[in-house]
Amino acid sequence: MKPFRLAVMASGNGSNFSAIQQATQDGRISGEIVCLIYDRKEAFVQERAKQAGVPSFYVSLKASGSKVAYEQQIVQILRDHQVDCVILAGYMKIVGETLLAAYEGKMLNIHPAFLPEFPGKQGILDAFNAGVSQTGVTVHLVDEGVDTGKILLQERVPVLPEDSLDSLAERIHQVEHRLYPQAIEAFLTQFEKE
Ligand code: GRF
To answer: Coiled-coil annotation: which residues (predicted)?
Structure first.
């Protein structure tokens, strides 16, 4: 079977993009990243895509005029690249109905907490401030809610008494970089191309 065609959507640093890209290169993911879509002009992830030779596309909500028009542009890029599966990796917008209608059930997200604990934009900070002794990482399908879709894989991460926010974030990111490729591959093995 041909390798699955993956798109990554991101807004920032892109360390998960690099971890996934590496996993496609060394055979841990039976797919290839065929494009990166990013929504913040200054996002460092575009440099990572350039270095990896992955075509990247900047799409601006502001310039699009509406969320629907913005997501129509994204769907067009995904269709042009015959994308099977969309991987959100630090994409900071809520997915709207246009994008969801095109890729529901084929769109994954990673969240830096053990859902349903600490959903939302600040999962690491919220867990840290809550003083819990463990948090986690979750990979889930994207639905119309915020971090509410079906959970595919999750793992606990301890919060140590001596942790700073930075040291906790670092531990969580390390788990993400291992867990996301694993979850993507497990998803792809039961995924049928249309
Ligand atoms: C990750 O912590 C991910 O869980 C969250 O956003 C962060 C993205 O990090 N959704 P990076 O841009 O992949 O380095």
So the answer is: none
Is position 15 annotated in a ligand binding site? yes
- Decide: 81 and 35 in contact? Cβ < 8 Å: yes
Q: Which pair of structure tokens corresponds to residue 53? A: 């030779």
Closest protein CA for atom 1 of ligand 1: 90
- Residue 1, token pair as written in the block: 């079977």
Q: What is the mean pLDDT of each run of 10 residues along the chain (194 residues)?
A: 91 98 97 98 98 98 98 98 98 97 97 98 98 98 96 98 98 98 96 65
Distances (CA, A) of 148 to 43, 48, 176, 180: 26, 29, 18, 17
pTM summary value: 0.96
Task: Tell me if 38 sits within 8 A of 73, measured CB to CB.
Answer: no
Cβ–Cβ under 8 Å, residues 75 and 98: yes
Residue ranges and CATH numbers for the domains of the chain are: 4-192 (3.40.50.170)
16 CA distance to ligand 1 middle (Å): 6
